Amino acid sequence: MHLGRIKGTVVATMVAEGLEGVRLLIVQPLNRELKPKGGMIVAADALKMAAPEDLIYFVASREAALAMEETFVPVDHAIVGIVDELHWSTGEAVE
Amino acid sequence: MHLGRIKGTVVATMVAEGLEGVRLLIVQPLNRELKPKGGMIVAADALKMAAPEDLIYFVASREAALAMEETFVPVDHAIVGIVDELHWSTGEAVE
Amino acid sequence: MHLGRIKGTVVATMVAEGLEGVRLLIVQPLNRELKPKGGMIVAADALKMAAPEDLIYFVASREAALAMEETFVPVDHAIVGIVDELHWSTGEAVE
Amino acid sequence: MHLGRIKGTVVATMVAEGLEGVRLLIVQPLNRELKPKGGMIVAADALKMAAPEDLIYFVASREAALAMEETFVPVDHAIVGIVDELHWSTGEAVE
Amino acid sequence: MHLGRIKGTVVATMVAEGLEGVRLLIVQPLNRELKPKGGMIVAADALKMAAPEDLIYFVASREAALAMEETFVPVDHAIVGIVDELHWSTGEAVE
Question: Could you report the predicted ipTM of this complex, rounded to two decimals?
Answer without folding.
Answer: 0.78
